[in-house]
Amino acid sequence: MLDIKFVRENPDAIDAAMANRQTSWDREKFFELDDERRAVITEVEELQATRNAESKKIGALMKEGKKDRAKDVVSRKIAIPGLEPGDILEYFDYTEEWIDELDLPALDFVPVDRYPVMAYLLEGEFSPKLTVEYRTYNGIPAPQRGSTEKGDNGIFLSLSYVGVVKDRQFLRRFRQIPFIRLNTLNNTSQHRFYPQSRRAGGMYHHMSTGTIYRDIKYALAASTYDLPLPGKIVSMVNGFRKTHPDAGRRELIDAAWLAAVYLNTTDKKDVISDYWLALVFCDALKKLGLTDGSDAGVGFINSRLDVPTDMIMSWRHPDFGALVGDSIYLPSTLLHFLPGEMPGEYQGEKGGAFPGDRKELTTRTEPSIFAVPTSRATQNKLIANARVSLDPEANTADGSVEFTLTGANKNAAGRMTDFNDWTSAVEDYFGIPENKRYKDKKYDEVERSKELNEVALEFGKQVFSKSLSGAEDFTMSHRGIVPGAPDVQFGMKFKAEGCLSDAGNDLLLNVGGFTGNNQRFEGDERQRQLDAFQMAPRQYNYAVTFAIPDGYEVDAASLEALQVNVNNKFGAYFASAKMEDSGDVTVNVRERYNAYMVPADNWDQYLQIADAAATFNDAVLLLKKK
């Protein structure tokens, strides 16, 4: 799910992503609704402020013994006639949608919420001409089926006193929260391919996974196309071969994938979906002689942000890519990862593929099942090397920092590479002449440079120091998206405020404030109801050197206190500080989380690491006036 702020600030990127998936979005409607939403939020905040002010009046009047006047204030707070404090409100949420018959999306019904639900009622009525499939997930009861008085098919589910999920973070909704997914097929339409398992109108519960896999198989077997894309891919890779005569098979396959995605996304006339792109890519590999087809085919998989692949409801449901050997190539990963490199949310997940000649697929029974390897924390690093200069007069600091992101952690720098950045990197990799490069008429290099400094500042506040007040001279060395440069590397200069404070004639330097911006878990957050899911195992390394200003010296005891060692099976937190020969002080931190999933029963061990990190963020070094 995309953050609404990202959509608001990057509508052109959404246009490109939608085009890549051969679909569209109502851009004008989005901004119209977004304006309405922000207006409602403002109104709600104003009402909340009024409510809080009135509540304070009540308390003050009660303390003063003015109960009659307090009752007057209470009556003004109750805007609904007859409503008394303590009454239970009942409300209904009604939504009506008009949906194109050729693109009926699956609907999810989730009874569990952040507040208690006394009664949850689900009723559905469907024309007998419609094929309605539904599946229950994560322990929700199956709805009852029946017929309405009009002769329509119907489902009915009534739940009482639905429990509350108190956890707010590290949830994977489709893996942990009970819900029902309903998929409607208009099988009266003749304008779209229907798979082998096409069924007459009616209600179907829990279609077998084997049936869905057969649908994918028969869809592949029936897939034909008349596109120039395979020939263009072959031409682009053969040109690469001439300039890279020593390139091995894997490098050429990776180059072919970059060529396929580049040609598809920059061709505004014939952009094809992920499914067709994977199919065309596999055909191009055979034309290039890089595979005989036995180890290459269209693959399908879901990340942990959706239901497991073996619980999908439709052949169109999973993410499609190409499986070549032991590597899966997904179009959705292009802006952040190398060809064949998998984001953290896919690691440990199982998928399927149908390699081999498509014409012979109907004789096979099951797909080849593969599992995406799970990486180690040391493969998914964020490394920050910084130097900080202090200004005791202004109580501010400035400096420079270089970041390196590896593996699954590269996703954190997502906004630093947009579609134009990606195409430029690919064109550099292939050596495409300037006059043949992709041109975006809306692209403004000056505006993009300004935007990158703003993005870098936001990134720095999140993972380096919340005291940052400005960023400039952003430079991107590597984007981590082409072979030979697997990591994301960039740097910037920064200014910081609030990191120095007076202690009489001395200074307190918040050195820990430059080693991440770690959350402190408090209250209910220290209890865990469900297992905690994270993107991937990961590690953060910080090496920050502070130039001690003239006229000050480091207090030895406070330097010695900057030593932390917390270690358990779910991670570790190490911190140390040392005086350099130059008189500067270098602080080193290593924060590691060993697993992408922490069982609820072991949440206390995760908290040991998180608490150590949050506590060190407040660590200070005493600089004594000479």
Quick take:
This protein has 13 helices and 26 strands. It has 626 residues and is of the alpha+beta class. Helix 3 (27-63) runs antiparallel to helix 4, helix 7 packs across helix 9 (274-287) and helix 8 packs across helix 9 (274-287).
What labels would you give this structure?
626 residues; 8-stranded mixed β-sheet; 5-stranded antiparallel β-sheet; 13 helices
Structural account:
With 626 residues, this protein is an alpha+beta fold. The protein is 29% helix and 27% strand. Strands 15-16-14-13-20-24-23-22 form an 8-stranded mixed sheet. A 5-stranded antiparallel sheet has the order 10-9-8-11-12, covered by helices on one side. A 4-stranded mixed sheet has the order 1-6-3-7, with no helix packed on it. The two termini are 55 Å apart.
